Amino acid sequence: MIDPVIKIVSFLVFATAVTFGGALQQALGAFLLLFSHLGLPRSTLTPALRMLRRMRWFFLSIAVVYLLFTPGRLLFTDWVWGPTYEGIAEGAQRLTALVLLVLAVNLLLRTTERRDLISAILWCLWPLAWVGLPRERLAVRIALTLEAVEGVQVIYRQREVPKGGQVGLRARLASITRTAGRLLEEVLLMAETAPLQTLEVPRPRTPSPAQWLLPVLLAALFSAAGW
Prior knowledge:
By secondary structure, the chain is mainly α. The protein has nine helices and no strands.
């Protein structure tokens, strides 16, 4: 079994490669994600797909910015201003990186127990102890945030604005505003009425030397793909 610390370090290597690398690194990242999902239930992907669907307008805004505001060769040479080939390439690369990161984060969260994840984060943050920062408090906040996000997602799905029909834009915006207001009220109520909980986090431990070969191999693969 892969140690949670190794999972986090491998994720950092993966995120760096697909964010700052080129098309080959992103293709390799997509293949590794596909391979990592083999044997996992389909429900593992459900939260990631739901998140990607909700980010569609964010993706569209990124595509428009890169497409229309990136200097380069015009896609339509008769136009004075418009989409460029460079904008298409860079926009596609940024969007692909975001999708891969969402899928990788989801995989990390769905294959790691929360208490083990917090313990691994504590291990990764051990340099903060040198400067006197309370890394235990940070770990508790991370745990509470992860738990609160799931609760807020449940409330949102129950209050989500219905789609379809002949509802006008103004009515739909008003409905979204009312939904957001009710969501805020319920989140505040949930925070005020939530009972106190005891959080037990395993003592951080150093992974075995053999397991460190995984992030090293991962970094080597991405480096080779960039040559």
